[in-house]
Design a protein that fits this description.
The protein has helices at about 30-40, 40-50, 55-65, 85-95, 135-140, 160-180, 200-210; strands at about 1-5, 10, 75-80, 105-110, 120-125, 145-150, 185-195, 210-215, 225-235. With about 250 residues, the protein is α/β, with parallel strands linked by helices. It has a single domain, classed as 3-Layer(aba) Sandwich (Rossmann fold). The strands form 2 sheets. The chain has a 7-stranded mixed β-sheet, with helices on both faces. Helix 4 links the parallel strand 3 and strand 4. The radius of gyration is 20 Å and the shape is globular. It starts with a strand and ends in a 17-residue tail after the last strand. The structure holds S-adenosylmethionine. S-adenosylmethionine binds near residues 56 and 128.
């Protein structure tokens, strides 16, 4: 019998528990490695077991465990929501299906460039949030302003790290301006960014518009990824100097 690192005996050695994927004709090494990582990822396995559409669901669960913005009754906008893990979590937490008796019933509205399989309790629209009037449409669908705007969006990878970094910061800045248009006073903005240096302006912008800005890497975010999340709480309104800034649009 093999011994685990803690000294306990087990039927199989720890190393043997990892699923190995053999290279196959016609499959690139990068695809084989991706498949192997997916099969061995505990969050992937947990998502399958718990019915979430992807491991990303645990990132918003962990962020909400820490900051508690998905409260029953909250109106939530999820930008770039496909395949829908974040929406699933939001539906449960804001009580969008009214299953928590005696608690307020919330609303979840997701938008994405791609089509999304329906999610019970969420309203989903195929929409580029950068398109003209996207903010007006969202407010119309929502029937008013939102308490939470969250974004897990990523721009399509160019293969060049520096370019990708600038693009995701630009996307995040655009999401922040979108949030300024649809958030209720006191609201929360959550967005994915990549650590890498170009995000200082974004941080400064958020600090002017919100009472608190935190940068967090939830445990579900892979340690080898430079992704992190900003959680900005207590929306104060758009600072005047930022009201008409559209300098990010050229990067997208
Ligand atoms: C990482 S996925 C989101 C995963 C999601 N949080 C979940 O839990 O399933 C990022 C999504 O952002 C979307 N996206 C990127 N740019 C967008 C845009 N301009 N408007 C709407 N969606 C966008 C992509 O289509 C993609 O589906």
């Amino acid at each position: 019998m093999a011994k685990t690192p803690s000294g306990k005996t087990s039927g199989r050695g720890q190393r043997d528990l990892r699923v190995r994927v053999k290279t196959a004709k016609g499959r690139k090494l990068s695809s084989t490695l991706w498949l192997e990582r997916q099969l061995n990822d505990p969050y992937v396995q947990r998502a399958r077991k718990e019915g979430y559409r992807g491991r990303a669901a645990y990132k918003i669960l962990e962020l909400d465990d820490k900051f508690r913005f998905l409260v029953p009754g909250a109106r939530v906008v999820d930008l770039g929501c496909a395949p829908g893990g974040w929406c699933q979590v939001a539906v449960e937490r804001v009580n969008a299906l009214g299953q928590k008796s005696g608690k307020k019933v919330g609303t979840v509205l997701g938008v994405d460039l791609q089509e999304v399989e329906p999610i019970a309790g969420a309203e989903i629209h195929q929409l580029d949030f950068l398109s003209d009037d996207a903010d007006e449409k969202v407010k119309e669908w929502l029937g008013g302003k939102a308490d939470v705007v969250m974004s897990d969006m990523a721009a399509a990878s160019s293969g060049h790290k520096g370019t990708d970094h600038l693009r995701i910061v630009a996307l995040c800045e655009a999401a922040a301006y979108f949030a300024f248009d649809v958030l209720e006073e006191g609201g929360t903005f959550v967005a994915k960014v990549l650590a890498g240096g170009a995000e200082n302006e974004l941080q400064a912008l958020l600090k002017r518009a919100f009472t608190k800005v935190a940068n967090v890497k939830p445990p579900a975010s892979r340690a080898d990824s430079s992704e992190k999340f900003v959680v900005a709480t207590g929306f104060r309104g758009v600072p005047e100097e930022d009201a008409a800034d559209d300098s990010v649009s050229g990067l997208l």
